[in-house]
Amino acid sequence: MTYGALTIGALILLFPYYWIVVMASNTTADIYATPPRLTFGGHFFSNISQVFAKIDFFGSLLNTLIVAVAVTVLVLFFDSLAAFTFAKYRFPGSSILFGILLATFVVPAQLASIPQFSIMASFGWVGSLKALIIPAAANAFGIFWMRQYCQSALPDELLEAARMDGAGFFRTYWTIALPVLRPALAFLGIFTFVNSWNDYLWPLVVLIDSNHVTLQVALSQLNGLYVSDYSVVMAGTLVAIIPLIIVFLFGARHFIKNIAAGALKG
Known about the structure:
The chain is mostly helical and 266 residues long. The protein has helices at residues 2-24, 28-31, 44-54, 57-88, 94-103, 113-123, 130-133, 140-153, 156-164, 169-180, 182-198, 201-206, 215-220, 230-265.
């Protein structure tokens, strides 16, 4: 009974991916057919070739990969460092500062677009990938998530033992805290990479050169002003999500492995 329910749930979750492949391998007319065609067609490679012909796919892919990897690395470092500080150290104004940090959750990201664009313009970064990487180098969600995990998974006695051995703040963070925080870091890494990869609004605003954009913005260029070839759009979308699937499979396995290791140690 349980396995049957899980199988049905898995099929429901996998159906959108199957449907993307079906649409990418058919024509737009087949997509609009009544009833819709649910089998693979023979136009996949022609649709893919049209994607490569209409946009600079590999250039946009490289831009997106650079941004996603850089943002993920910076977020993992800065968010875990800040979270470790908030969770295990007390300093004047720490509670107020953390409260202000949490308050940023209720502010829509769209409200920050205009002042953020002005700041990037004053730095001369408009049109540069730095305008996508630097503002996203840390975020409130990552700090909150890592802090909560750090409070429950990192014993104070372990840190006290490190201090007695003469370890300073950064050595304690690097050699004691980070190994314990690996499962939380794996989740945050996946979450950050996927969000950065799929980001559309801010790259559309700040990357003013249409020939130097990220993948999501480039894929939007496949939609014509009056007519959209959805089979080509779906073909581009299918190729674009392959790196996300690879990152998710690798990160999820690492996440589960560390959780299991922690359970065995406990």
